[in-house]
What does this fold into?
Amino acid sequence: MLKFFLDKLINLINEHKEFNMARLVILGAGVAGHTAASFAAKWLGKEHEVVVVTPNAKWNWIPSNIWVGVGEMTKEEVTFDLAPVYAKTKIIYKQAKAVSINPEGSDKLDKSFVTVEFTGQGKEGESEEVEYDYLINATGPKLNFGATPGLGEGTTMGEHTVSVCTADHAVHASHELEACIEKMKAGERQKFLIGTGHGMCTCQGAAFEYIFNIEHKLQERGVRDMADMIWISNESFLGDFGMGGLHFKMGGFITSSKVFAESLYAERGMDWIIGAHVNKVEKGMVTYESLDGSINTQDFDFAMLIPPFAGVGMKAFGKDGSDITDTVFAPNGMMKVDADYSGKPYAEWKPSDWPKTLQSPVYKNIFAAGIAFAPPHPISKPMKSANGTPITPTPPRTGMPSAMMGKAVISSIVDMMTGKTTEPTHTSSMAEMGAACVASSGKGLLSGTAAAMTVFPIVPDFEKYPGTGRDINGTTGEIGLAAHWVKHLLHHAFIWKAKLKPGWTLIPE
Amino acid sequence: MSDNTKSTNTDHSHVQHVEPYTPQFGTMIPSGAQKFMRTCVLWQIVRFLAINVKMMTLIIKSHH
It folds into this structure.
């Protein structure tokens, strides 16, 4: 009899739990998505479901792809399998890509859902409708190689250049680099062209770090004198970095990142082409349009050109099946959040234009984090060539900003899911956060020197910080071995953290 | 530029030659002392600690 009542009681408790159980779906397992998923699993426990949808089987510490791209690290050292990590934390993992969102459900399903298409787990090509109570869009970017003729097709890299955007791309780049080194050893001079492959690229920092790693590698291998090295970028000045440049204390002056970056290139005997929109890539040659409207060419033997980023191309549908993609996403495919998208001119830009909560203004249970959210406008001053072609770096939001956004968004959602509030409780505006960038030159602990930069805030605020727009005590830059050690520390610490090994929460993001 | 990088003046042997009227001529070039400090292990240990403090401060200020 007692057992009968106990079973009834347990059933009642379980039914109550299921009734209150909510499901959080996270699209993407990059820096933002994985950070959000990790904290969701920790904070929500078994009371709620956490589902991660990502087309990738492996997590990749992308900053170290640079070292893979010069043969200093293997793919295995910068990636690990996601499935075991999610299995131990009870996160439901679907190796699939998100195709569309139905925020209002459909004529068959009342609940909000995402349609996904599997890319692994033995279900390749199968579709599934994954219901959600809360959704985080952290898909990251689509590598839009197809935007520049010859750079690639769609998301596939072309045959004329290399990339370090993924670990596989970086492995390929290292093989190509090795082939060039062998040619130089045999007495054949080589020309290296590194930079951005389109006028609207971001992520100049990755290319910046890669060119210095190549230069260091060539020095190490004794063939530097056989190489011509050229930087090509859509920045209107060296050191813009998609943030309109920055200033920091150096040698008794408040020095511009323009001088800082130019100095690094000059010291290493590298030339630069700036304000360039690469509009065609052929075997051994790029064609680019400059800000003055001139059309020029540059030949190369080895080229690493970062592609422009776009949204991953998800669609959105209303309950009646109508296409509401324009309501949920910006024209570039990034998700609209609580930003000012009025398209006002540069002179009227304000830090308050930037999103704070990263919540969709239309669907309050949808958030975006990392590269997936649509910036209201660039940070760098928009430039057009004399022919009217836009040549402006787009805002950087990889790495540290992505992780911060992921944590802020999940903090808000957890508060909402657990009934503490109905509104987001945390903010993560790029106008109120800083970022750190460590650009290595080689991997040695006692050789090579890296540049370590910090910037606060990422979006300049000339009202709060008159003069340079940034906190001069929080915005710094220096060159030295110490920055190399920091890069090593970050590599090991963040892979440890991403694997959710003991003490992972103590490593700050 | 690489052919002209060595100065004949021994007092300035640590200063890299930069070709006049090139874009590189318009920027700063590190002195020998600056280059030494960049790889001086003792000084870099101090800088390592300083960079970590800066980054932690940045992180603390950035979470809202």
Observations:
- DSSP finds two helices and no strands in chain B.
- Residues 37 and 45 of chain B are 11 Å apart (CA to CA).
- Residues 1-30 of chain B form one domain.
